[in-house]
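Appendix B. Raw example, untouched.
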Amino acid sequence: MNGLLRIALKLLLNDRGKFATLVLGITFSAFLMMQMTSMFSGVLYQSSANIVNIGAKMWVMDPAVETPQNSIPMPDDVLDAVRSIPGVKFAVPLYVGAGLVKLGDGTYQSATIIGLDDATLFGRPKIIAGNILDIYKNNAFVMVKDSNYGKLGSPKIGTSFEINDHRAVIAALAHTSVPGLFGLPTLYTTYTRATQDMPSTRYMTSYILVQPKGAADIMPIEAAVKRLGYLALTDRQFVARNDNFYEYKTGMGTNILMMTFISFMVGLSIAGETFYMFILDNLTHFGALKAIGAKSTELIQMIMFQSLVVGFLGFGFGVLLSSVLIAIAKIRIPNYAAMVTYGTLLLAFGMVGVISIVSSYIGIRKVTRIDPFDVFRG
């Protein structure tokens, strides 16, 4: 390490009170920013659970649909029209709706009901107990064993209850990669059974799942569906549409942005003020270094180094604290919607970097104006 940088590190560590205050201030700021952005990332990820779990390449829907939780039923003839579009390998209907489950003890619980195409069962979940073919038995449903599984009394295969006054029997247990956002248990059944047992509107098809023959067929399919008066999106486009809804049309994105900005300002104010006080306390040392020949650029390097050391430690402790609390929360609350992503890490790292740069700039302005004669005269 450069000799001047060693001196800078010793000056920083020598004032343990201000050093601890600087690290704690940035730690607290990084922790809050990580919590806010991780929570928002988790909400967006889990709100797209049906899109990810079903795994269809393209989705056809009513143009007014903005999120997979709020489907608008389409006429049955739309399915035939989509199947006739050149480039479509196959297209199947999908039902997504809500059911009211009456448990054995007389209590009620809302649940998400997903009806799969009878012929192909396209979009079926991974079976972990039982056989997927048992879904064709009378009154059969497949129960997803996730964080909301216990809300239906943790049913075993063969357990029966009522859904919207119709008998339902658990034929198999399944696993999905993404849990739902709103804490509702999920049940899969056939499209025919779902449309027969659920309260019906005039139309029953929530979505049409499309598998194109190739990537080159996606745009022509989208254009053909648009001419029918409906909307065709790839899975990624549907996820982006869902994210846009939660970011800009629910107020959630604005609230998270404000809290993140407040966290940034808290860290900036604490770090900036404390670092300025640290520079004032060590002004004689910087003046002495300047008097014996240290250049202004070298002094700037020292201050930047001190600021980066504090920022790096604060960021690391903040990420560690946030990750530990998220992990504990997920253990205690399995469907807790928060996840640390590369995006949240980069955002927090960038904002901590800005805090470090601004804090060091405050000190640099003071140090570069030092007159060694004034320092020694004092």
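End of appendix B.
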